[in-house]
Amino acid sequence: MTDITSTRGKEMLGYLPSYYETSRVMKSILQVEGTEFDKLRQALDETLNQFFVRTATWGLNTWEEELGLPITPDQSESERRDKIISRLRGYGTATISVVKQVTESYDKGAIDVVEDHAAYTITIQFVDTTGVPPNLDDLKAAVRAVVPAHLEIKYEFNYFIWDELDKKLWTWDQLDALNLTWSELEVYD
């Protein structure tokens, strides 16, 4: 072995006198120790990532448990993170701002929240999202956890409508070439 490939091994060699740079024995020792230090650093970085929801992976179970959420390893990490962030944002008084933050943590798009005091309803409008968000059930549960029980919650979604289709001036052949199902056409952008 003549070269040190380990990041920490190279760093350790820099702390030693220059005559060790030609020693195969020292390079071999530094490579082995450096590799172990590289693994240790990677494990420390990975552990640190678990303390932040946006970077957590195997620590998501702990976050869910601490926040009283059901542990759902069958969901994607992104959906689980959305639930956790929503719960963290949802603590406190239920204001329109809080409802909006909770909803936006799931949808990643613009949301309007309209409150109708007389009818005791809150309407959540998905402004720039077409179709139904993939994790709507989780979103509904998170919003319900924040909104007082006496208020009804309504959801309004955007779909691709015929007027928008007419504006595109497509022929039937062009539309057919897209090879879309009806459900896919409803959310086509």
Strand content: 5-15%
Mean pLDDT comes to: 85
The N- to C-terminal Cα distance equals 57 Å
Q: For the CA atoms, what is the radius of gyration?
A: 27 Å
**Second rung of CATH, namely the architecture of the largest domain:** 2-Layer Sandwich
Q: In DSSP terms, counting alpha (H) and pi (I) runs of 4 or more, how many helices?
A: 9
* Assembly type: single chain
Largest sheet geometry:
3 strands, mixed
What is the 3D shape?
elongated
CATH overall fold name of the largest domain: Alpha-Beta Plaits
Number of strands: 3
Element pattern in H and E: HHHHHEEHEHHH
- Content-based structural category: alpha+beta
Question: What topology, given as strand order, has the largest sheet?
Answer: 1-2-3
What are the segments in which pLDDT stays under 50 over at least 5 consecutive residues?
none
Number of structurally distinct domains: 4
* Fraction in helix: 40-55%
Protein name: DUF2313 domain-containing protein
Organism: Biomaibacter acetigenes
